């Protein structure tokens, strides 16, 4: 084989040196998962009936709508944008799907109609943000209000109940014992993970959020990417709206009120930076689950609703604070590592 | 002559400032008498702006003394600077555009009525008086943002005068002014001089400096070169003082034989530049020289589709190129490393691998999936070529030194194998070792048949690494020359618009 002298130099360049423990890196990889595990253990111990299978499936089903919203929102937030209108899209798409179903459309068509409405809303958000360079906060604040108004207008302010809704299984059915909304949620996350991690488009989403100007000069079509992430968020919201409508077997003009904030909380809990460019879709899923576990656990513990809000708010702030503190090199030795990485080549 | 006391108004001795590994100022001195205009000149990076920041209290010196009227002072903050009567008129103005002129002038010490309410009437009256002192006919009730840059500058000067500034620093004040506005500024400078104010005037424009200044001091690479009275010194002396360093082996390369024309530009114009005509051949390095703001970066961006062109034709390998945006230009074989790598080229929090691979991902996609193994192999190859440590692959670009960051920005286009490369200030803020490697890489690229267009403010570099030079001034190419015969003085003369003085050619012969 090769001479002894050759080996060390080859090793040195190709094998990264063992790095000292780095809290920031560790937290990025598994931190939020640890929080979830700790929370589940805690709840299993103190909350009666928490870890029964039917309860866990209930939790999974109850988080599915928020988790699907958060999946779409992750794309938007990764580009450094925000979408406040997803809660209102839930209402409009649910209304449209129910109206279509009542009007005689077959279930798949009614579901697609709901998602298409979501996509269209997203297209408006995205095009205004990208091509007119309007602040997404303002654009989606506007569409949030507009679409809520639209939902009220279509329904004339009253819920439209349809007890024989043809796509009710999307919200209430089971497949091999697993609630269908949970399966849909898992498929959504699988697709989102694939897009973000395995496709060129996914890299472009991160690039736009990391530095839009540099992305453009590197050949990324920034406006198209920006528009598309709102469309994705809209499609997810449309799907969430269909599931919600199926679950309550009716079109509710008030559906999804405030959901955008829960979804944003899940994304941020999952470690995605509101500044864009950093974050992972798996984190968003974990973030949604944490919020769900916390919510259900507190109910099982008979914690009063007002106190639940206090605890939820505190948890969100705590998680984001840890995420922000880990960026401080003097706290977690990231600076030493950064300097070490830059020593001259040998 | 004006008041010529023994004691200078302001005196700086042995001022030193270090930023990380770079010595921005190395024991420089400078003195200013009351009632004089003292020009401070030097190339970009000579240390002028660092000195101004120290005077303004924005940056703290590491060593050296500052004396006013012979008494040592300390300038720890902009407030200190104001207390000592030092006022700075920056290139970027420190004003609030949405507020009125009067509000801006009163900022921080707004007059109030006895009830503690803002006394608007007095504020406007005071503003009117302040503006009158410099004979600026500006309505104090207009929003500042509605005024031209020149007028806004007048407001800044009025503020400085009203604060009884004794030392006024003007940093490239006429860069954005019309001729008439500049004339008005000159008049105000004259008034202030007769009122005994000392003015430090930073400018690249020889003509203007000779018209205004009493003395000139030249800095080069953070060191003091010399001071002279305008009567004893000629523009060519000053140019020589600014650029006169030996061209080291740093730029040495074997002669290249450029081939067919790859980039053919005619009548290209857009915002801030043009029309320009030029060509770059395969295997040729063409350098655009000129002062900052002369339109070089704009030409690069127009070529690359980063900004919209108004007219002009660009041929790449004889095919018309009309990129609507950079992605189209990249598809046609262009690559650009922009001026500011941190803002415009890199994703600081993303890995080195992602940064390098971004523009070439389409080459590694099978059935919609990015083949990450292939990407890694290809990126690794480019990193080896550039002597980047391979264990940096997964690190955020932020963790690299300036030189290695620049190499990562270059590697993006090496991976893409772009035919035309536009490199805007490729060695700015880069240490000497990385500079040498970047020069070698540029030479290697040219030898591999690429057409390389380099934009550089570093004159020895521009001359040393290129085959041909295009000198730009005010958005146009004013001179084109063979790099082999070019001297720094000659380039500077064309860049500043000064006619070459007699004998400059012989004196400026290359070392």
TrEMBL record, chain B:
One of its GO terms (cellular component) is plasma membrane. SUPFAM superfamilies: P-loop containing nucleoside triphosphate hydrolases. Coiled coil: none annotated. Gene3D superfamilies: P-loop containing nucleotide triphosphate hydrolases. It is found in: Cell membrane. It comes from the Bacteria. Pfam families: ABC_tran. Keywords: ATP-binding, Cell membrane, Membrane, Nucleotide-binding, Repeat, Sugar transport, Translocase, Transport. The keyword ATP-binding applies. Residues 10-246, 245-499 form the ABC transporter domain. The keyword Transport applies. GO terms for molecular function: ATP binding; ATP hydrolysis activity. It is a peripheral membrane protein. Belongs to the ABC transporter superfamily. This is D-xylose ABC transporter ATP-binding protein.
